[in-house]
Specification:
Number of helices: 2
Number of strands: 8
Order of helices and strands: EEEEEEEHEH
Shape: globular
């Protein structure tokens, strides 16, 4: 997985004047970055990542959309006893800080991460 970074895609946009043909506009992505991909965690053999922040604000950047190469399914790292309903699918990306890369979402992910 050398050379890959994980980011949460926030927005896609273009920077062009009105006279440029829309099919020739380069698209950009604004992403919130995660830490480098870890070595597999020993007891479960999954890679993990953490949100990168500065003073509580997500570290972000702008990249050409063409640099986005794949979806990256994530599962929150949940430690200790979790009460029912405390982690919700629609909000866990905001509430949790660490995630496992899910290699079981597709056979391509499994080949890449496992």
């Amino acid at each position: 997985m050398a050379g890959y970074r994980v980011g949460k895609l926030q927005m896609v946009f273009s920077l062009s004047n009105d006279q440029q043909v829309s099919s020739k506009r380069e698209l950009y992505a604004f992403v919130h970055w995660f830490s480098p991909i870890s070595n597999p965690v020993a007891h479960i053999c999954l890679h993990s990542i953490k949100k990168l922040t500065s003073n509580g604000i997500p570290d972000g950047g702008v990249i050409p959309l063409s640099r986005v190469v794949a979806l990256c399914p994530l599962a929150p790292v949940l430690l200790g006893c979790i009460s029912k309903g405390s982690v919700r699918p629609m909000t866990c990306m905001e509430s949790e800080m660490e995630f496992y890369l899910n290699p079981f979402a597709s056979h391509w992910d499994y080949d890449l991460y496992a």
